[in-house]
Amino acid sequence: MTLTNILPTRGGARVPAVGHQHAPISDPGMYLLRILVLISISSRATGDLFSKATKSRSDDLHNSVFDFIIVGGGTAGCVLASRLSAVPEWRVLLLESGDEENIDYDIPGVPTKDYRPILWNYKTERNAFSCISRPSGSCEIKTGKVLGGSTVVNNMKYTRGSKSDYDGWHNSAAAASLDWKFGNLLEFFKASEDNGDYDVLMNSHYHGRGGEMHVQRFKHVDRYMEVFTAAFGEMGLKNLDINANVPEAVVNNQFAIANNTRLSTNNAFLKPIRHRKNLVVKTGATVTKIVISKQEKSVEAVLYEYEKGKERPAYAKREVLLTAGAINNVKILHLSGIGPKAELKKLNITTIHDLPVGLNYQDQVTTGGLAFSINDVAPVSESQIIADFKTWFQSRSGHLASVGIGQVSAFVQLYENSKGPDVEYVLEGNFVRSDKFLLTNISVAVAEEHSLPISYYNLVNVYPVLLRPKSKGKVLLNKRNPKYGRPTIQANLLKENEDIETLVDSIDIALQLLDTKELKKAEIKFAPLDLFPCDRIKNRDQWNCIARHFTKAMSNPIGTCRMGDSKEDSVVDYELRVHGIERLRIVDASVMPTHVRGGIFAPTMMIAEKASRMLIKDWRESKNQFYNGR
Ligand SMILES: Cc1cc2nc3c(=O)[nH]c(=O)nc-3n(C[C@H](O)[C@H](O)[C@H](O)COP(=O)(O)OP(=O)(O)OC[C@H]3O[C@@H](n4cnc5c(N)ncnc54)[C@H](O)[C@@H]3O)c2cc1C
Ligand SMILES: *[C@@H]1O[C@H](CO)[C@@H](O)[C@H](O)[C@H]1NC(C)=O
Ligand SMILES: *[C@@H]1O[C@H](CO)[C@@H](O)[C@H](O)[C@H]1NC(C)=O
Ligand SMILES: *[C@@H]1O[C@H](CO)[C@@H](O)[C@H](O)[C@H]1NC(C)=O
Questions:
Q1: How far is the CA of 171 from the centre of ligand 1 (A)?
Q2: Residue of the CA atom closest to atom 52 of ligand 1
Q3: Which range has the worst mean pLDDT, 273-282, 309-318, 427-436?
């Protein structure tokens, strides 16, 4: 068989036959990759239907003076660009290190988080207590390097966390922090929201519509989603909206999608307004430094590069807004002389302002090694997958309009004194070739490695995710190559004893799933993976060992530029202004002091909405006149 006549057609245009089409498919595992490659080659040939944007890479800026410069076109950056450029007299520059988003990344069933070209591909430093059996003893951290940032590679799940998480950011000694109590943030969540599920929308206290970010459940439901939902139900969890401040629920999640297509903040906020004359978007542009005058400690410009070593300046009349995420913000700030003095000194960087940038790093954490097998799944045929791709391109429906079992998750409060859920049981389907599978003793890596779209699965990885881990780490510059090397990430996952104990407690509950009538009836069984060197250990000690060896970082990094009122333990104030520096704000997940009990993409959009409101208030005499971007 050849792939020539089975490639998807797009917008009526036949996709040209390219390369490889006569290559026999020997390894079904190569399928997804090959299809992705073909599709992406073809999209270059036929033009990207989604994006009318053209590459801006080689252009020089005719006028390099702007009112606002946004550093990083990710989750928060795209929201800010849209809101600020809604004020016609403001010139806004958005600089993004990655390239344009491509529609190939927007097929829900295709796991882009494994697609290296659009990732920063960072890793944690080795230590003796976590990620021990992961490659080179470190955990991968996968954040997006593409316009849209991590919303192009994330799981799209729309969760906000609990009221108590935000209320905990409030510090009674600092009046300004009152603004960050949950009750005062709801309007900013709702500002972006366009909720497409009527039962959810009915709760108008929490939800709204009319915003740019459409959120909705996937329509595609398969048998095992029902089985797992019912099994969690049997264990006492109710099917509820987790975004309505409930402590426990089994959830049929809502996702950032429109017409069954990924809706990144680029797709939702930026694409519709790319034509604005006062907005300049540069992709492939990596910011290397923020230029700060030493006397006034005021920001003047940023330096950015299309090519290594060729720095260009762009000047900001009003403010520079840092939105490069919790890891890359640290790199940019340290290179600019803002950071812990002792650390900067080691690298001969003159400190402009001594601030704890990079400390207080936190990530949510889980472990691999816990998987359930589903035996009666028929092998997926080549032709079915190709037909499903066609279906998706033609009508945005079918198998690929789904993230499979990942649509279901369960939030559980383990301890009475917790102020909300402690863990989320995240389910992730994977199709493991039957010849490997029959051996049962497959490695954790094989159990986790996607070779087919995630909506086909005969294995369910069950990840108990610690939503509010206690362990903290730090991010530093690469000692050997501060400017171009990967930053050093001492994540310290599972360093605190409480974290490992909670994780092991949560595994007990996951195992109870196997005893439910539902899972038994469906013949879903424990999958004995190769857990060397933990295979000989029994009970709690075994799970302790597994969690330390097969740790998984959730890639939801926060805290490195946390907000607070003192420059000793925070980087920005409650209006997100960098302590002691004029005209520099940080507006993304890095300002969160602690995690919220859920994902962080919706909270990050909220932060950007709130910051836009502050900026417009601070810089415009006549308020609200143009602030109606929606
Ligand atoms: C695999 C994965 C799955 C996830 N799943 C979910 C989920 O289902 N639900 C959820 O709520 N959250 C999820 N998250 C988390 C969430 O998506 C991100 O943490 C959040 O969106 C981060 O937003 P941000 O604006 O802080 O950073 P980002 O969105 O990462 O944006 C930073 C941007 O800055 C750019 N940049 C960096 N350095 C520079 C530089 N020097 N110059 C120019 N540009 C630069 C980057 O390329 C990027 O585009 C997931 C994350 C990952 C990685
Ligand atoms: C810092 O400067 C000193 C003195 O000039 C030099 O010896 C040292 O190698 C430099 N260190 C780095 C990391 O560049
Ligand atoms: C969804 O996408 C398909 C395929 O491009 C298109 O035919 C259909 O009109 C779209 N539906 C909506 C509601 O936009
Ligand atoms: C599982 O595989 C590992 C090597 O991958 C091997 O050392 C171990 O003995 C196997 N265990 C069983 C029960 O087959």
A1: 27
A2: 154
A3: 427-436
Q: In one letter, which amino acid is 208?
A: G
Residue whose structure tokens are 């997804």: 32
Query: Which two structure tokens, joined as six digits, stand for 250?
Result: 């089994």
How many angstroms separate the CA atoms of 122 and 139, rounded?
9
Cis check for the bond before 111: say yes or no (omega within 30 of 0).
no
Task: Out of 3.10.290.30, 3.30.560.10, 3.40.50.620, 3.40.50.2000, select the CATH number for domain 220-252+364-553.
Answer: 3.30.560.10
Pocket of ligand 3 (CB under 6 A): 259, 395-396
Task: Give the model confidence (pLDDT) of 264-287 as tens digits.
Answer: 999 999 999 999 999 999 999 999
Structure tokens at 49: 């239907």
How many angstroms separate the CA atoms of 409 and 427, rounded? Answer: 6
pTM assigned to the model: 0.92
- Distance from C-alpha of 149 to C-alpha of 323, rounded to nearest angstrom: 10
- Cβ neighbours of residue 200 under 8 Å, at least 6 residues apart? 207, 241, 243, 254
Contact call for residues 298 and 292 (beta carbons, < 8 A): yes
Q: Find how far residue 512's CA is from the centre of its chain.
A: 30
User: Helix or strand or coil: residue 490?
Assistant: strand
Tell me: the pLDDT tens digits for 175-225? 889 999 999 999 999 999 999 999 999 999 999 999 999 999 999 999 999
Contacting residues for 314 by C-beta, under 8 A, at least 6 apart: 61, 64, 65, 66, 69, 93, 95, 301, 302, 304
Fold of the domain built from segment(s) 3-101+266-361+559-619: FAD/NAD(P)-binding domain (3.50.50)
**What residue segments make up the domains of the chain, in order of their start?**
3-101+266-361+559-619, 220-252+364-553
Ligand 4 mutation target, pool 441, 446, 531, 535, most atoms within 8 A of CB = 441
